[in-house]
Amino acid sequence: MEKAKEARKASYSPYSGFAVGAALLCADGTVYTGANIENSSYPVGICAERVALFKAVSEGHRDDLVALALCGGKGTDFVFCPPCGMCRQALSEFCPEGFPLFIMNDGGEGYTKTTLGELLPGAFGKDALK
Fold it and tell me: What is the C-alpha to C-alpha distance for residues 117 and 91, in angstroms, rounded to an integer?
């Protein structure tokens, strides 16, 4: 969670003011971080979760992702912010249903642990394309 909080500082969110940080742990102990990056053409932006995920995947980590920590909010405030649908789907490409996510609670006090399967039941996956 500390790495996610640190990553949040790199957020580029001048339009929403909502800064998000993510930290993705791999089995070898490597942690890939990400921050949300907005764009004046809104769909061009990217979420912190996908930044961290794509950094890990581009470095060869595909079957060894262990857990994801997330935090976000406006200014110095923290609010509970689970991944958006697009991020859930992106994670489902590389992570099993039981993949744990740790999401900082409102006010920055503690976190909630959930799984990808709880957040994205019935995910569209590779098996659907066979």
Answer: 10
Residue 49 annotated as catalytic: yes
Q: Which of 2, 6, 38, 49 is catalytic?
A: 49
pTM reported for the whole predicted model: 0.95
The alpha carbon torsion through 80, 99, 46, 55 (nearest 10 deg) reads 130
Q: How many whole angstroms separate alpha carbon 111 and alpha carbon 70?
A: 9
pLDDT tens digits for 74-104?
A: 999 999 999 999 999 999 999 999 999 999 9
> Radius of gyration (Cα) for the chain, nearest Å?
14
Closest CA to 20 of 78, 66, 65: 78
Query: 100-104 and 65-74 as β-strands: parallel, antiparallel, unpaired?
Result: parallel
